[in-house]
Amino acid sequence: MNKIKYCFASVLFLFAYTAWAQEEAPKEKEPGHTNQSKFKQLYEEFASPNTYRSASGAPGPDYYQQQANYKIDVELDDKNHRLYGEETITYINNSPDDLEFLWVQLDQNIRTKDSKARLKNGNGVPLAEQPGAFAGKYMGEPFDGGFIIEHVKDASGNPMSYTINFTMMRINLPQPLKSKDQVSFSIKWNYNIPDHTVDRARSGYEEFKDGNRAYVIAQFFPRMCVYNDVEGWQNHQFWGNGEFALVFGDYDVNITVPADHVLDATGTLQNRKEVFSKEMMSRYEKAKKSYDKPVIIVTQAEAEKAEKGFSDKKKTWKFRAENVRDYAFATSRKFIWDMQAVKMGNRDVMAVSLYPKEGNPLWEEYSTKVVAHTLKSYSSHTFDYPYPKAISVHAKNQGMEYPMICWNYGRPNEDGTYSDRVKYGMMSVIIHEVGHNFFPMIVNSDERQWGWMDEGLDTFMQYMAEQEFGEAYPEAIAPNDAYPSRRGDPSKIVPYMSGDQSTISPIMSNPENVYQLGPNAYGKPATALNILRETVMGRELFDHAFKTYSKRWMFKHPTPEDFFRTMEDASAVDLDWYWRGWFYTTDYVDIGVKGIKKYYVSNKPTKRMEEYMAARNLTEADLPPLVYLAEEGSEDFDESLKGKSPSETSKTLKEFMMDNMTAEERRNVKEPKYFYEVTYDKPGGIPMPLIVEYTYADGSTENITYPPEIWRKSDKEVSVVISSEKELTGIIVDPKAETADIDVTNNSWPKKEENSDFDKFKENIKG
Q1: Tell me, which fold does domain 35-60+451-587 have in CATH?
Q2: Range scoring the smallest mean pLDDT among 208-222, 324-338, 512-526, 620-634
Q3: How far is residue 118 CA from its own chain's centroid?
Q4: Averaged over 541-569, what is the pLDDT?
Q5: Would the pLDDT of 414 be above 90?
């Protein structure tokens, strides 16, 4: 309390001096301006809340979403790597609108010979290209992998009119589809499956030396576009980077493949006894009760035997999936298969891995273990994983996600050895792609428009899951080390945020329009959320708000505003300044120590105070009793003030204490002998908490975190007063590197001397 009184006195002095200085140096009148405060509310940026989406960030009373149910039959032609399919779509119009036509996505059309996606970038000759990409661009004819639409028919089998526009197909309805009504139609198609190892296709096949192929198949069927309250039809073309906006529905899928293939897919297998051997069934039943380690369903020896077969017979695998937004499958005679059970509330979920022998021993050791951990970690921060299984499929150079199934890289050397880089890369991509089951497969954001809402949120969750994996499985991590996460820690994003601002886009950008998709959609939002959790909000408030968002929007279609509003609604923390700085701009964090002044308590007015009184025809008698502070080194400073308590050098303060404190209170009062005015500046545009470590002459330290609101009235610099019984000897801003500050050379007082590049070179030579 006494510190407060002294600080008030010093602030009074500083305020009086500042007001005098402003009067003495009048400026030319500035023109008016709109509200430029970083702390103004985001009303101008946000869409107006309505009955579909409330101001709290929750779905409104009139929220709706469409549904699309699929019955699909597909057959894989392994010899010619071609896929044939036919589907019946039942589209349910839950919107209040009558629809004149329907839009369907044809994502494989990005691979037609004349695809405009090949021409979208004007970057000139690259410094280097991967061999497959180089061959695909410059040697031979482009791969022709677009959909061949054989027919579109109504429920009675009559042809329907349709128009194809690149990766979109408009189905022209004979009459509008009324609100709350539904329509069924069928599409028959086929396409050439690409070699995904050549140009990093999101799905396709890998061919091995013996002629066997492993298929990871997705975007393989015409899929309904989203129609919603935000923009009507979400029919943005698929250019390659912006992923998918999809409708929830139920799927019945029959997949016909060579009889010697092993296959798994989105959904629950309906004819397990028809496609499993007795031995596989026995192992599967054992796996359903194994919670501590995987059970091998198809062994490596069995897979190696199957590799030599190339059966001409066929087998159909039948699946059913409920309330999913997409569908994918993986199939090969090369696959080893293992599973284990994971407790999820009062039910069990199967963690599953499929991999060729080329993935071992790494995959058998870690893949399913990582899948199980990911489900537990993500569920603890969001909601219990609702689907019956999660599958990790080994595919060269892949990292791609679909409901219940994903493709992941991480291949050992041919002799089975592998580096830590390969091991951690595999673990991380599995965590990331399995984690996509939560964002966006369940919390179903629009990836094509807002890539960060799935990639950024998932990368943030991935970071937490990685760190938790290191804690849960220390034997898998180097001794005394944390899991080496590539993204999420504040330091990881500094190079990007300190780069050329002309090559950086705000997070709130379409994935097709950013210069560097990885840092923009993955790293920066993940770091922003990590800092929000650890430094700005604190774990308790953040975790509750994040879980609230996840539960509000599971199996629904959230927008960025729904996320931003929910995080504030569930925490009572005003974060508009944070969203504005981190998500809507390319500003960066840079806070430093600009200067420091030392003061001592004095009994007489300073020269400047006397000038202030004279300018107003005031005498000391006209003012209330004041405590004066003299700056060390100024003409008012007297060496005799050093080392004395304020009550010794200020008569008015001593009288105040005698009149207002008891003898006991006076004996116990702590009187600061040193007063400092520390000025912090903010070259960076993002306001952040001002985190400071003060060091004193006796070696003790004090850590103070000033709230971000300290910048609300001055976006450039602020001054704080430190009163202490001990002499201040050092200041460090952001001592634990929590804020992604891009320039730490200004973070210390006294300023740390940095060696020149030449000095560093000499040190390296000596070393």
Answers
A1: Neutral Protease; domain 2 (1.10.390)
A2: 620-634
A3: 29
A4: 98
A5: yes
